[in-house]
Every structure is written in C-alpha cells, then in structure tokens.
Amino acid sequence: MKICRSHGRCKKSTMKCGVLIILLIVIACHVGCTSPIAINTMGAAGSNTPVAFGSEGGGRGESFWIAKYEDVMKAALSAGKALSLEIEEKRIEDDQTFIRFYDGKKERIDLFIERRTDTMTSIRFRVGWFGSVAFGRLLARQIMYEVTVAEYFLEDWTLMDQ
Predict the structure, then answer these.
(1) Number of H helices and number of E strands within the chain?
(2) Beta strand 108-115 with 60-65: parallel, antiparallel or unpaired?
(3) What is the pLDDT of residues 65-106, one digit of tens each?
(4) In this structure, is the dihedral angle defined by the CA atoms of residues 27, 32, 38 and 42, taken in order, positive or negative?
(5) Distance CA 133, CA 49 (A)
(6) Domains in the chain: ranges and CATH
C-alpha cells in the first residue's frame, strides 16, 4: 500500500526501515562490549568496598583496589585456593604478578596484578574470547571477600552511606 506523497506521508517501506534502525540500536545497547560495562560498575557501586570494576570486552576485565599490592596478591592466591582452582603458572615480581588459574574443566583465567601506587593496585583478568566472564567476576568477588576478611582495604567506604 503506497501513500500519496502530496499529503506529506511516508511510504510503508520507509517506516519499516525506521523501525529496523530502532531495533538495531536497542539490540546494540544490550549485547557486545557495552552491556557488561553497566553491569560491572553497578556491582562495584553496591558493595561498599573501595574497588572499581570495568569490562574491556573480549573476555577481559579490570579492577582497581585501594589496597597494597602485596595484600591483593595474597588475597588473589587465597581466592584461588578457596575456589579450588589449580595454579598452572605464577610469576611474582616486585611490582607485578601473573597467575594462570584453571578450574576442574580446564577453563583458564589469567590474572595480572600490578602495583599502581603504594596504596592502589590493579587487577586485570582475561578468560579469552570464548571463556566465561562470569568466572572472572566470581574470582574478583572472592578476592574482594579475602581482602575484606583480612582487613587489607586502606579505606572504609561503608561510612559513605551514613
């Protein structure tokens, strides 16, 4: 059904094109690299811990911690032990550590822990393109638990809610 142009109305095919564009925009906002960013930052904001999370896409994530490098490194090793992960490779240096963990099904996760300042440490994780980002989030939450229980955090963000 064609509508007359003289009355200022669109053809049916033009309206279908507009609907398709809107649908593609909605889909793009809910998949790919942009979706995990909102999910990860919401998790950090609600936890009252001095940690900021982000997702880089492609099975990678990053977090910054207000805690000493040595303490975060110890907490990461404790978290791996608590989750019964196997360590395949571990390289510890003065300012950075690399740990490769495997779970029982041989899914790997690589952790890069780096001293940024005396009071700030970063952790980058990589599970690969086909690995589970949820695996990385779980390990990050376990590290957060280990740091909290050991009282390694240098700031107490629970006071911010009062």
Answers:
(1) 4, 6
(2) unpaired
(3) 999 999 999 999 999 999 999 999 999 999 999 999 999 999
(4) positive
(5) 21
(6) 40-161 (3.30.160.110)
